[in-house]
Structure formats: C-alpha cells, structure tokens
Design a protein that fits this description.
Elements: E1 15-19, H1 35-44, E2 48-55, E3 61-63, H2 84-87, E4 91-92, E5 96-97, H3 101-107, E6 112-117, H4 123-132, E7 139-142, H5 146-156, E8 161-164, H6 166-174, H7 179-182, E9 189-193, E10 195-198, E11 201-204, H8 208-216, E12 220-224, H9 233-242, E13 246-249, H10 252-261
Parallel strand pairs: 1-2, 1-13, 2-6, 6-7, 7-8, 8-9, 9-12, 12-13
Antiparallel strand pairs: 2-3, 4-5, 10-11
Helix pairs in contact: 4-5
Length: 270
C-alpha cells in the first residue's frame, strides 16, 4: 500500500516527529517521554510525536523507552514485572510521572503518534488502547519485531499505518533486485536510521537510490538517529536534500530551525 492511502500521512512533507517528546531539547533533558516534554514539542508546532510503549504486569500500557525504570526515573525494576500502581509512583527527573499511552491520546487529540511496541506483552494493550480511543487513523505502529507488526496489522486492520522493520530495510539495502517483493508489505513507511551497524561495519542505509525506490512504490522514508549518530542541522539538511519524507529527532529545536530555513516552518500551537 502507498503512503497516500493513510490518513496518518496526509500532512504535507517533510514531517517533523518529536522523538520521546524531544529528548535532546534543553528543557526536556532528563524528562523524556513525559507529558511535560510532549507539551513543549506540541507548543513548538510538532504535530507528530514518537513514543515507545511497555506493558505493566497487570496490563497497563505506559509510554516509556526502557525496559527497566532505573535509567531516567527515581524507581527500580522491570516494568513488565511491576503492577501499574508501583510504576505510577515513579518520577522521571524526580518530578514527572510516567504517562499512560491513553494520556497522550486524551491530552493531544489533534496530534498523531508514532508508537514503537517494545515487547510482546505490550502488543495486545496497544491494540486495545488504539481501538478504545478510535485512534487507528492517527497512529503509526512500529517495532523491531516483524512478528509484532504483522499481528498489529491483523488486529487493527488496513486503515492503520505501520512502519517497515529495520531488519527488512537493511535486507532491502543489500538486495535491490528484491525491492518489489520486499515492498509487498502493507507498511507505507520505511522508518530507518541514516546508518546502521551490520556485521561489524557501519552501513549507509539512506541513499539516493533507496529514497528513489521507496518513492517509486509510494512509500515514505522517515529517518531516526542512533544515540551515537550525528544529529545536527547539517545532517538534517543533507537528509532533506536526499528527499526523505520525515525526520524523527531528539533535537526538536534544531529541526524546527532547519525546516524554517527551508520554507517549511512549524506553526506553534495556540
């Protein structure tokens, strides 16, 4: 299927996606994936948010990146092993609660959400929350697990956008003769890093040829960055010059300025 088949992707490109609310933006540092961080991104003009999701032991779905609470919160333990009552007491940066995915849908009804399902246990709760909030047309589902993506598509139906998995995209990069077969997937988006380690070496995934092939099949190319990747204005300009359709960034102020320079300014909320 093509990007034009999905309501989620009907905004003019390039799309700007706030990764974890903009984890590298100075006011958000230490407060990633919090309602406060997402509010700052939306106030800046972001209409696409990115978050990861995990399920608690009693099936509540939280917007949080790590499998365990230790790195950015004042609590410890694996989310999957804890009931929501315990997880809800944790504070990110010492002050901000860990939000439920439902809170993002309810707090930002006009915003679209890119959801990375981080565990098998989070699959069914993700489907439940998307359906409960009637959000099928305002989400894009991604996962490092192709099996989870297939299950999400089956459960949510053809109107939900999904992002082709990273494994499949790396495969595409090395076997261009199999492009047509690869893109029989219903995913309208390739969501990939500009570079990726493969077999002990760094491989450039986002090339002019890949972007052309994706566009020829009606697919979007959205680029995200590894923690060790270069993520500055020069690199964003380079990727946009290649014709990528979206950038998923921690540095939401940098991308805002890049888009303004290129004549695609974000419109601040309110």
């Amino acid at each position: 299927m093509r990007a034009t088949d999905f309501t989620y992707l009907d905004h003019p490109t390039p799309l700007a996606l706030a990764h974890r609310g903009g984890a590298g933006y100075a006011p958000n540092i230490g407060f990633e994936n919090t309602i406060a961080a997402f509010r700052r991104a939306v106030a800046m003009g972001y209409r696409y948010l990115e978050t990861d999701v995990h399920a608690t032991s009693d099936g509540h779905l939280v917007a949080f990146h790590d499998r365990v609470l230790d790195r950015v919160s004042d609590a410890e333990g694996a989310i999957a092993a804890l009931p929501y009552d315990a997880v809800s007491e944790a504070r990110i940066g010492g002050s901000e609660p860990i939000p439920l995915l439902a809170e993002l849908f309810e707090e930002f009804p006009e915003v679209r959400v890119n959801i990375d399902i981080k565990s098998d246990a989070a699959l069914a709760p993700t489907v439940r929350e998307v359906q409960r909030h009637g959000a099928s047309e305002r989400v894009c589902i991604g996962s490092f697990s192709e099996r989870r993506l297939r299950a999400a598509r089956a459960a949510l139906g053809p109107r939900v956008a999904t992002a082709a998995g990273q494994v499949g995209t790396a495969f595409l990069r090395f076997t261009p003769a199999l492009v047509s077969r690869m893109f029989h997937t219903p995913a309208p988006v390739l969501q990939i890093p500009a570079t990726h380690p493969v077999a002990g070496r760094t491989v450039t995934l986002v090339t002019p040829g890949l972007v052309r092939r994706a566009h020829g099949l009606g697919k979007h190319v959205h680029v995200w960055f590894h923690a060790w990747s270069r993520e500055d204005a020069e690199e964003m300009h380079r990727l946009l010059d290649l014709g990528v359709d979206g950038i998923v960034t921690d540095h939401i102020d940098v991308l805002r300025d890049v888009l303004a320079e290129r004549g695609h300014p974000l419109v601040p909320a309110g």
